[in-house]
Amino acid sequence: MKKYIYKASVLALFAGVLFTSCEPEINYDVNPSAGAELDFSNYVAIGNSLTAGYQDGGLYREAQLNSYPAILAQQFEEVGGGEFVQPLFTEAQRNGSGYLRLAGLPTPTSPVLEPVTTELAVRRDVQPLPGGPRLTKYTDPVNNLAVPGISVLSAATPIYGGVNPYFERLLTDAEVGQKSYAQKVAEAQPTFFTMWLGNNDILTYATNGAVADPTNPFSDKTPVATFKAVYTQMMAALTKGGTVEGVVANIPDVTSVPFFNTVTLAAIRQGDNVPDDAVIYIKVGPAPTDVRPLTENDRVLLTTRANIGRPDQVQTPNGPVTIPHGFHPANPLADNEVLDAEEVVEVQNHTKLLNQAIAEVAAANNIPVFDVNAFFTSIKGGFKIDEVNYTTSFISGNLFSLDGVHLTPRGYAIIANEFVRVINSHYKASVPTVNVTNYRTVVFP
């Protein structure tokens, strides 16, 4: 099986989350109660890859079984919750889309990863979609409607079913390209819902170094007005005029996940055969002279690490010359390989505007908001649960999976507990939390 240093070109399709020193309140011993308002008999989860349980650069059966909605549904069962159906891959196809496993860790920032390529749910009998190979269909009604890669913007257009294989697998052949995700959500008829949607309306742009792909209409920052209009439509479909309760989550500061904070200038200089005072150059504009040295305020993408120092043929007035990638102004790291300091501010500011829209729509429908952005900012620097330390460090921090964006099962359990906290506070319920130490972190070889 082929081994390689981490690189995942499709990662920008999928959503992310920030774990950024307080200790979250955990209470395992409560008298379970749904309170006077809540009916969990048909709980439906709306969202993207985070809601699906995506981790390690893929979606697979174990990841689905440890999604935060599955954990929530387990807790809801104690207060009258009904069956929770997920579009699970079968045991025979347990590895789903394929994912990455840790094969070695020569340094903390340069894991050796292997792609898992057996027992997949990838279809070979049809042509792939623009977003990747098609997956085994699951068209029965489900409670976890999460679609990795989806944004609020793409949720509004029927064409997305013919683009994203994770959405296509939930549609009949007749519905592909004809039914939007927003329409699919409107058919769900929940008695209670969670919706964590919107990360990809800024994350996809950020994970491509703040460069929009002209071939992908969903790769730029979603305009705030468009975002709010679609979000309003989806909220109305879920709440049914105020008769259905739920909770929504907002968008974290995506620039603080390990994907953007592992390949630092100091980490590059610690590499083999790299001088301690080495200068790394980055492209910051379209002109040939728009090049400057990398600083600690710039964020080299995790997927860029394998490219640094690559011997490239560069054309000069004296002919082609081999120059290590990133180590000379004539061969800088490309714009889409780095989120520079100004782009970090741009992404953060747009996130604030999208979160304001979420807050306004939620308030208009009297739906509480799990403020993910504020929660993870409050635990910046690390925290501890049951004497276990958690940080934002790549792999060793216990929170993030091998793609540097999505969570470990333990991380998803922590998220589920925070959803419970918001539900209990707003609705005066007593849904029990889960013991997060029952869920694993990164699997080491």
CA distance, first residue to last residue: 15 Å
Can you write the helix and strand succession as a string? EEHHHEEHHHEHHEHHEEEEEEHEHEEH
Low-confidence stretches: 1-26
Beta-strand segment tally: 15
Mean pLDDT: 91
Apparent shape: globular
State the helicity in percent bands.
25-40%
Biggest sheet details = 4 strands, parallel
CATH topology of the largest domain, by name, is Rossmann fold
Radius of gyration: 22 Å
CATH top level of the largest domain?
A: Alpha Beta
Can you tell me the number of structural domains? 2
Signal peptide: 1-20
InterPro entries: GDSL, SGNH_hydro_sf
Keywords: Hydrolase, Signal
GO molecular function, one term: hydrolase activity
Protein model, in words:
- Helix content is 26%, strand content 13%.
- By secondary structure, the chain is an alpha/beta fold.
- A 4-stranded parallel β-sheet has the order 2-5-6-13. A 3-stranded antiparallel β-sheet has the order 1-4-3, with no helix packed on it.
- Helix 7 runs antiparallel to helix 11.
- It is globular and about 75 Å long.
- The N terminus is likely disordered.
A few lines on this structure:
With 445 residues, this protein is α/β, with parallel strands linked by helices.
List descriptors:
445 residues, alpha/beta, four-stranded parallel beta sheet, 13% strand, disordered N terminus
How are the secondary structure elements laid out?
Layout: E1 4-5, E2 43-47, H1 49-52, H2 61-65, H3 68-76, E3 99-104, E4 112-116, H4 152-155, H5 165-168, H6 181-186, E5 192-196, H7 200-206, H8 224-239, E6 245-249, H9 258-261, H10 265-269, E7 281-283, E8 291-293, E9 299-300, E10 311-316, E11 319-324, E12 338-339, H11 341-364, E13 369-370, H12 372-378, E14 383-385, E15 388-390, H13 409-427
Parallel strand pairs: 2-5, 5-6, 6-13
Antiparallel strand pairs: 1-4, 3-4, 7-8, 9-12, 10-11, 14-15
Helix pairs in contact: 3-13, 7-11, 8-11
